[in-house]
Amino acid sequence: MIAETAAQLKQAGYCTPRSGRDPVNLPMINNWLEAMGDNNRRYAAEGVAPPAMAQVWTMRGLHPVATPDDPLFAMTAVLDEAGFTAVVATNCEQTYHRELRLGEEVAVRSRLSEVVGPKKTALGEGYFVTTESTWFVGDEPVSSMLFRVLKYKPAASTPSPVAGDPIRPAVNRDTAYFWDGITAGELRIQQCSSCGSLRHPPGPMCPSCGATKPSFVVASGDGVVYSYVVHHHPPVPGRRLPYVVALVELPEGVRVVGELIGAEPRVGMRVAFDVAAGLPIWRPKSDLPPLSIEITPTFVVSSALATRDFQDVHHDRDLAIAKGSKDIFVNILTTTGLVQRFVTDWKPQARVTSIAIKLGVPCYAYDMLTFSGRVTSPTTIEVVGRNSLGAHVTGSVEVADA
Amino acid sequence: MLSGKAAIAGIGATEFSKDSGRSELQLAAEAVRSALADAGLHPSDVDGLVTFSMDSNAEVAVAREIGAGELTFFSRIGYGGGAACATVQQAAMAVATGVASVVVCYRALNERSGHRFGQVSLAAASAPTTSGIDNSWHYPMGLGTPAGTVAMAARRYMHKYGATSEDFGRVAVIDRRHAATNPHAWFYERPITLAEHQASRWITEPLRLLDCCQESDGAVAIVVTSAERARDLPRPPAVITAATQGSGPDQFTMTSYYRDDLSGLPEIGVVARQLWAQSRLSAADVDVAILYDHFTPYVLMQLEELGFCGRGEAPAFVAEERVPLNTHGGQLGEAYIHGMNGIAEGVRQIRGTAVNQVADAHHVLVTAGTGVPTSALILAR
């Protein structure tokens, strides 16, 4: 039934176009910029809308009317019936062919691109449903989006860290300075106070000169991944699987092992030292100035409404909790807008031509969302947005002129 | 000095299983008795015993069980599987110096049904020892299994030489092909294809399940006596032509990550130089190589350190099978008896009684655990 419906919907192709409520207009743009905290003046100066607003123009609003031939609606109904009742968005890839100008009327057409499943996932068994939407001004396609959701049967238990306490280091008088440094948030390298040699891991006697008066220097905290592993098995007490452990070479000339958080690992990647749970860890070094957003309830609500997303989980705490969430949480259109803002705060004149994001942990009210980014080509920025639960969003932004 | 003085006169083993159903001491005693019977010797002939520091059976406990009398030599070697060939080196040195006349090396473990080395050891990082402190730079950070520690070096090797997971997989395919024709192997009649290797799940990337040796219950024992005496015993002696131990500069146990280069095994280099010096042979003279294979990438690095091929050339060397490798099936295919079953295979190749016999095998190389302070042997007719 699932496969047949998918085949029929794919066969049917694009649904009938659906027009936006309003033409591209300044009040909605300004509300959106205000909610995102985006002060970029280029949009006003050039009379264009921020590209990441593409989907906003055709959002269904507070009282959505179902369109029978909308492929995602139809596919959702079939999967609901088959017991795959829960839904989570996993990917959103938007391409902006050009910027929209004030006064332009936008319409959207969608089609089912593929249905893959059943797949076993960490959340439960489910189907990945991918739709493709194209926005038009008249006959001209102006932007497009690939949107993927996982429709799943919630597993009996959600993935959680393996039971047990995390492994703690043995500390003795030779190594206490290092762990004191971790407590102080700094990376200390043993230095011989006689000959000045640096050493890690440390020891009581300098192998170069034999002196037994070790001291330490504080490392810059920069490093380069020398090698890494991705641990899948066996379970490790207190840890979520899989995780990455990197051997990092410091400019000071020693290597230090630590978990690498927040990026696909590769040898040669530039990383920065940080401390988490009393252990040294590595994060990808941000080429862009970091952006931290305090996720207040006001932020969640105002940004959801500014993107014309009236789903209750983004503004009604009681209903959000009733649906199994911890609190109200940030909607995807806002995440997309923040990814854009992170890049354009750094390069205000940059014109964003695509934003492809993978969604991770939810971003609940009262958390802090921090972005870091790496420039991987003259026009590509890899972005990660993390909160206290982990990676909320990872993705890649293409710009026309970085 | 040591070369040619001592020989292996007997080998013995229990069955290799996943659940032996008996104590490690019983396994040890059974293997030792079986090796003595193979050598045509009696427990009362034994005056020396050597094992691993990781073995749970004290030399005196084994001596009691087999009914040996006085011992004049007993010794234990550290560093996990790195001890394997060093037990024979210790025995050979004891015999060559007259400290003992018949020394039995043994290793017995219920590694699958009992303590499994592949699981994360909480205690390993908390021990108030240099090992505990060393482990504290790795275990708390999430690097707490043998596979994890080897994966770090494997990734660097791939990065430096362009080696692939398939290159690792070819080692497993060779081992399992040999195990398939070895009735004593756990994976008897169960060969694998490279595609099956590639389809096996990740343990710690870049290592897949089929890159990792199995977990086994069992025991192996090796009887060492003087070459002269061995010639009077029933079996053709496997003469210990070279017996070496080695650790490299800035050596750690499994985590020697702080040397200039992470894509080789300097401790195997230390062992290799001694092997060729003691035996006056070179890699080209080796007829069969039994290389310690707890994880496939280290087999490639060993071939390079031992001089079978140049740096980064082992993937091609293995693809072309330019030396008979792990003819018993290795620890991936036969059993994981901490390298001791590889020594037994070396002896069978010299005797001409191996299931996958290499014609005219005159010189067999056997290595021990890698990534740790290690050891190696050359056995000859």
TrEMBL record, chain A:
It comes from Rhizocola hellebori. It holds the Pfam family FAS1_DH_region. Residues 20-142 form the FAS1-like dehydratase domain. Residues 179-213 form the ChsH2 rubredoxin-like zinc ribbon domain. This is DNA-binding protein. Residues 217-272 form the ChsH2 C-terminal OB-fold domain.
Automatic annotation (TrEMBL), chain B:
It comes from the Bacteria. Residues 260-376 form the Thiolase C-terminal domain. One of its GO terms (molecular function) is acyltransferase activity, transferring groups other than amino-acyl groups. This is Lipid-transfer protein. The lineage of its organism: Bacteria, Bacillati, Actinomycetota, Actinomycetes, Micromonosporales. Residues 23-227 form the Thiolase N-terminal domain. PANTHER family: ACETYL-COA C-ACETYLTRANSFERASE, NON-SPECIFIC LIPID-TRANSFER PROTEIN-LIKE 2. Pfam families: Thiolase_C_1 (PF22691), Thiolase_N (PF00108).
